[in-house]
Amino acid sequence: xxxxxxxxxxFTFDPRSCALLIIDMQRDFVDPGGFGEALGNDVSLLRRAxxxxxxxxxxxxxxxxxxIHTREGHRADLSDLPQSKKLRGRLKTGIGDAGPMxxxxxxxxxxxxxxDELKPAAGEPVVDKPGKGAFYATDLDAMLHHRGxxxxxxxxxxxxxxxxxxxxxxxxxxYDCLVLEDCVASYFPEFQAAALKMIKAQGGIxxxxxxxxxxxxxxxxx
Length: 222
Ligand code: C5J
Known about the structure:
Number of strands: 10
Helix content: 25-40%
Number of helices: 9
Order of helices and strands: EEEHHHHEHEEEHEHEHEH
Mean pLDDT: 97
Oligomer: single chain
Bound molecules: dicarbonimidic diamide
């Protein structure tokens, strides 16, 4: 068993029944020239999470933990894209349209891919999700169930959107989540701070919040 200093109290886990879940570290959100930047966001705020996630990823791989990556995006024919999501924002160039890195948030396009620094290794599942939560319309829950996973260490972007939605979905399905605060990021630091506060509030209503250094220390002792 491993124990990680976290809030609201220590997070204990067995690396054999705990998976590392990396949410949507895709070029379209994180890289200069992608969809996120085209919307006027400062992607450097998101890029800060890459190096700490890489350390956690390397350590999880060394320990033999299950690593799962997710990507937000849609089928090429956009049949899984709700009109509400397509139309909201009244964007001139939105999901499915041609962007600087191919069609925006369409599976198989360059912008939809995971950044090179965090490239999935052979055998690591990649979950393609059409929504914000990683459980909605995906086989993530079945995959975790079949591998005997009960706990998740969660990293990725953005904190208050896809990360928080996924943590809430996981909580309702009976998974414990540890969110590493330097391994998640938002275009809006105030939203990140609020989302992390919500997760650990009321004795950990949605889960735990820790950081990469304390996670790596705990994992080393497992
Ligand atoms: C957003 C995400 N922000 N991965 N997606 O639309 O959080």
